[in-house]
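User: I'm writing a short methods note and want a consistent example. For G2/mitotic-specific cyclin-B3, I'll paste the sequence; you return only the structure tokens, no commentary, since I'll be parsing the reply automatically.
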Amino acid sequence: MPAPRNTKAAVSKQPCPGRAPAVENAQAKKEESSQAKRSPSSPQGAPKKRSAFGDITNAHKTQHILGKKETAKAASKKAPKGSVVLGVAKNNEINLKKSVSKIPSEDAPTEKVPAEKADPPQTPADEVALVKPIEDIDKVQQDDPYASAEYAKDIFDYMREREEKFSIPDYMESQPDITRDMRAILVDWMVEVQENFDLTHETLYLAVKLMDHYLVKVTSMRDKLQLIGSTAILIASKFEERCPPCVDDFLYICDDAYNREELISMEMSILQTLHFDINIPVAYRFLRRFAKCTHATMETLTLARFICELTLQEYDFVQERASRLAASCLLLALKMKNLDGWNPTLEYYSGYCVQDLQSSVKKLNFLLTYQHDERLKAVRSKYSHRVFFAVAKMPPMDMLKLEDSLQRASRRSLS
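Assistant:
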């Protein structure tokens, strides 16, 4: 609802969304500056990294303290009850209470209490307090006009719905000239391209999704597989990056195995095959969203990212839902760091309980423990670097210990 005229002084201090650059929080800047591995020889000149949806998932208030005080004073004097900021905060509070009220309370009495011992009538606020505590992870962003805090949950609910549309079947049987090992080697090469061009992780995940969805519908020969992979990165870069690499850069990294006409023709083929609908849900975005529920350290989040990125090369994880994969990677990382597992906030925002993730978590731990292909070095080498806290060198959990930990966590969630 547009603000009344008498709030002009308060609203006028907000930057114009169409002209000013997006506000990034200090944590995101620190993450990008510490973990970005620049390549001086990159044909793109190593542009600065940008996290898509960062303004929704990880952005915090970064306004100057003086600016906040002046805005608060002006809003308190002139802004009525229906002002924009208060409206956003009120809507979030109402939406959260509505969703929380649907969750049955474990503290609710099961037996009748005598009248003389019964508690006094409770107000609606007291009833909400009896429910499991669920944190509003978007509350801290309500004063940031670029965070879209009011719509963040709706956006990720929409992405959860789109997962059904973009499910991937087992397509290797319809590819007579391509094997699982060939796909794994190609993804390993795509990880190196993402590092060399300093692309975002969202670009890498989307490129792998584009490649898989294209191979579901089109039978391809092995000599065109690298062309499909490089073209998928080109399309994902245009979708995600602020400064995507150009066509000549991709011809260069393919060692001139293809010409410009072939690359452009493949780009048209992929887009037309997918009907130009390339906003595919990826696990990386869900992982960043779920990590906010745990207030996990950057090292724990990086460990979950490492586990999640390893699955890109494994064909067995192609059919896994992005949100479920992200939740499983985060739960395994929490167990490996001996941290508390699934809290009510995580269960609410992810939509999964511990029982739903047990099989996936054990499968991921098996991947960390046993499946080491010497030809696939890009991901482990990348996360062995100190800027990624060398999480690839962390020993995996013992399978029996993990099983026992998951069983105990499952019993706690049911009790």
